[in-house]
Fold these 2 entries.
Entry 1:
Amino acid sequence: MLFAGNLIKHPCFDEMRKSGEGYRVVGSLENTDRIMKDTFWLGVYPGMTDEKIDYMIKIIRDSLK
């Protein structure tokens, strides 16, 4: 499993960001912010079937036309 992007911008971190406690940041996180801003996300999970993947492909192709 993989998740990318700036996790501390997720709503579950709202209270921790307000208090400044419960997590630590190493570096500027500029790459994680870029991933969140400039990436097209597709929701997937281990139970994806060929039928579900084909449906996603169709919807994406239709949307790009």
Entry 2:
Amino acid sequence: MKRRDFIKILGAGTVTATAALAGCRNTTPTGGNENQEPPKGKMTYRVNPKTKEKVSLLGYGMMRLPVVGGGSGRENPDAAIDQNMVNRQIDYAIEHGLNYVDTSPAYCQGQSEHATGIALSRHNRSEYFIATKLSNFAPETWSREASMEMFENSLKELQVDYVDYLLLHAIGMGEDGMKDFYSRYIDNGILDWLVSQREKGRIRNLGFSYHGDIKVFDLALKWHDEGRYHWDFAQIELNYLDWKYANEINDTNTDAVYLYNELHKRHIPAVIMEPLLGGRLSNVPDAIVAKMKEREPEKSVASWAFRFAGTPEGVLTVLSGMTYMEHLKDNLRTYCPLKPVTKEEEKFLMGIADDIYNLKTIPCNECNYCMPCPYGVDIPAVFSHYNKCIKESNMPNKGSQDPDYRRARRAFLIGYDRSVPKLRQSSHCIGCGQCIEHCPQRIIIPEEMRKIDRFVEELKQNV
């Protein structure tokens, strides 16, 4: 599907409004067994309590597909999907027992469903479960007719007669999460229509993904309790940092322990997104890497996060956006089979979470949903440089009398100019706030830009 066709179907605003949509951003594994082939026939499965079907604990998130020329569509949005590589990776995944594949009309500039349909249509329909979403973010897609058209187009692109898992996409998102929720799904009657499609078998499991206003999450579960709407599953963000620190890091997020417990006590299966928190939990400071390697020398840093996400009872599958084959192989090694996190290891990971939280980094996942900035600021690059200096204990923040201040100051400023062109640095942020509603981590971006700009100016003055 070409970008212009995608915009026609979803509405022009959707392309920049898809915050919190990706299952996971995975980076190159840091481990000692990258060359070891994952075993076949060892995948860990969880049972869907409604259908009694076995679902692979590792799910394939089709939001960062490889593109021609290398990299993913996230970094190169205008590049064509490398269909041959997608086919190879899907073949390899299914061969090793993975059977849950998650996509959306909004992923990869509208190309994900099409590419996913091509790759999966080469296999028997009984070999995989397809999850897709009603991604009607733009107001021009809020009508009943437009939303129905989006669902029908998903079936066409995926080359199927039914979807196994259909999600209301990112409920609670937007400046007014509750108002948008009603506009997208309730006032237009589209949720009732989706329920009717479930009764007809065109949707086998109906659920939602949550990221935003906790009042919307609680309302959805209240309706479940009252019997107004029955949810077959729900997708939430869960990882060992967000388990108890999501609200501390950003007070508009909700701790994963609350989200998980609310689902678990209702026996609603949980699909997990962001097990690596956008790659941050595979790109931790060297001191933390050393701690993990001391305990598990042959395991990747990412595997700790995936084991944590897959351990809780009631987790149906854990999504990973796997651009490269090495990502897929590393995750398959973790779940073929899963070695559940022990109580002692959970305590260890909570200590790691404390260490990461105390770094006071900006919780940016470099997802680029905030881009492009209308004033040219490279928001992810600015945050990346700032966080990198914190993670590497290379911040000149101990005062000019510190013996290492001069070196650290020089390294920060020179590194800043090298990694972010001057015209794209924080000083050019005017505080318009257009980026805020698109950030899945709910970062108040203009405020952070002002802090970094003041910090940089102070460093420049302290010659």
